[in-house]
Design brief:
alpha+beta; 4 helices; 5 strands; 40% helix; elongated
Length: 115
Amino acid sequence: MAGDIYPARVGIEWIVTDSENVVIIVKKDLSGFEKKVANLLSAPTIVRRPLDEMNSKLWILMDGTRTLDRIILEMDIFFEEKIAPASERVSRSIAEFVELGFVTLNRERFEDESE
C-alpha cells in the first residue's frame, strides 16, 4: 500500500533478558585520544541500554516486516489503556530510536532471506 512505513532495527547488538526485556548493546565510537583515556581509566567501551516493557515489545516488533500502523495496533491490543494514546506514544518512541540511529524507516517491507 502506498504510504506505508516499515520501521526496522539497524544491525545493532541486543539481547532479551530473563525478564523478557530488551537490552541494546552499543559500542562507543571513541577517538584515538578517548580510547587511550578509556584504557587508562579501564572505562567500558560499550553502553548497555535496557528498555522497559513497552519499548522492549516495540523493539521486537520493529523487524521491518510490519507497517507502522500494524505496530501501533499490536501495541494497543497488547498494552490496552496503559499505552493510550497508542499512536502518539509509539510514534514518539520510534522517533527516539530513529534519532539514536537504532531504527530506520523504510517504504518497502523487509524480506527475510532465511525464509
